[in-house]
Amino acid sequence: MPESRRVMAFDFGTRWIGVAVGQEMIASARGIARLQARDGIPDWERVAALVEEWQPDLMLVGLPLNMDGTESELCLRARKFAKRLHGRYHRPACMVDERLTTRQAKEEVVARGGSLDFGAEGVDHRAAELILETWYADGGRCPAQDTYGLESTD
């Protein structure tokens, strides 16, 4: 049976970081913010305000693996971001395979007849929802090598 943890997910990017929250027991996911970043560094005060407001028990960060499963430079930066989240807010952080989440989020917008100006409208918060949904679908597991501040649940 799923635990009753509040979970906050981040779609890490160098210009934008999407944020979603959810409740593990009911596998909910809701995009709540799109944070502007400068070279992958967000306004930490905005992040702190979201953490304070939502009080997550666990933070997830999308790991942008290449299609063949190898890691890119962006993976290293996403891991660094997860470590900073853990260090700043003293909550466990877990990496989640996020291959194709941004693409899926963009396809959903297009299918609804939404704007193709993703820079203005953004899909980052929806991509964060998809990261959370992926984690739920995978049974809420956090492999040891992809976790900061939490024992492996794999």
CATH 2nd-level architecture: 2-Layer Sandwich
Put simply, the count of helices is 5
Structural class: alpha/beta
Largest sheet entry: 7 strands, mixed
State the name of the first-level CATH class.
Alpha Beta
- Enumerate the spans where pLDDT stays under 50 for 5 or more consecutive residues: none
Report on this model:
This protein has one domain: Nucleotidyltransferase, domain 5, CATH 3.30.420. 34% of the residues are buried. It has 5 helices and 7 strands, in the order E-E-E-E-H-E-H-E-H-H-H-E. A 7-stranded mixed sheet has the order 4-3-2-1-5-6-7, sandwiched between helices. The model has no long low-confidence stretch (mean pLDDT 85). A hairpin with a 2-residue loop joins strand 3 and strand 4. Helix 3 (101-111) packs across helix 5 (124-137). It is an alpha/beta fold and 154 residues long. The protein is globular, with a radius of gyration of 14 Å. It has helices at residues 44-54, 73-89, 101-111, 118-121, 124-137; strands at residues 6-11, 16-23, 30-38, 41-42, 58-63, 93-97, 147-148.
